Amino acid sequence: MVKWYSHLNETVGPILLDSATxxxxxxxxxxxxTRDYKGKTPHLIGxxxxxxxxxxxxxxxxxxxxxxxxMAVGSYGSAVKSSGEVRILKDLDExxxxxxxxxxxxxxxxxxxxxxxxxxxxxxxxxxxxxxSLLSKPSRREIEVQVDYVGFEIPDQFVIGYxxxxxxxxxxxxxxxxxxxxxxxxxxxxxxx
Length: 193
Ligand code: IMP
Ligand code: MG
Known about the structure:
- This protein is an alpha/beta fold.
- It is 25% helix and 32% strand.
- The chain contains 4 helices and 9 strands, in the order βαβαβββαββββα.
- It has helices at residues 19-36, 52-61, 112-122, 183-192, and strands at 12-17, 43-48, 67-77, 82-90, 100-108, 128-136, 149-153, 159-160, 176-179.
- The strands form 2 sheets. A 6-stranded mixed β-sheet has the order 4-3-2-5-6-7, sandwiched between helices. Strands 1-9-8 form a 3-stranded antiparallel β-sheet, covered by helices on one side.
- Helix 3 links the parallel strand 5 (100-108) and strand 6 (128-136).
- Helix 1 packs across helix 2.
- Magnesium ion (MG) binds at residues 47, 50, 106.
């Protein structure tokens, strides 16, 4: 049990998905991926930094040979709102030519990041291209994108933990929690705009 966050301010809210629930679902996703990719060697691309923890757990539950790579993308905007303009911060190390690529993402929110990524990656000659996202917020969608595997659909609330951050913090919380913005934080956000 991690206790260090209990002394922090009120930005850490209640648990939405606890660690055991997350692990059970990640195992189920891995079992489905293992069945679907039987006889193949999927190439799992983790989208940094948010999907790093999910990627690390998922690959250990997949009962197949896999390879992996990582890519970092960012969008201009504030800590909680994306502007939709996506750019590559760290590109892949390896070519995707002829590979069965599975993009591992933390959250499918507006869809702008995944839309950009799929367009970009599909031009690099993969044999197949699919997406697994741990979370999805359907109510926030601006662009529909085909996401082949979804862990949990969640309501329109900003979440932290299990890789997901607020201003680069809280990624190491074992549970997924709701972020509660204090009056102070709201003020700081307005000033930054
Ligand atoms: P998009 O809006 O689908 O393009 O999602 C862009 C990125 O915003 C995701 O990959 C996450 O890194 C981040 N994001 C969206 N919603 C949340 C959230 O609730 N908590 C933390 N990060 C989020
Ligand atoms: Mg992210």
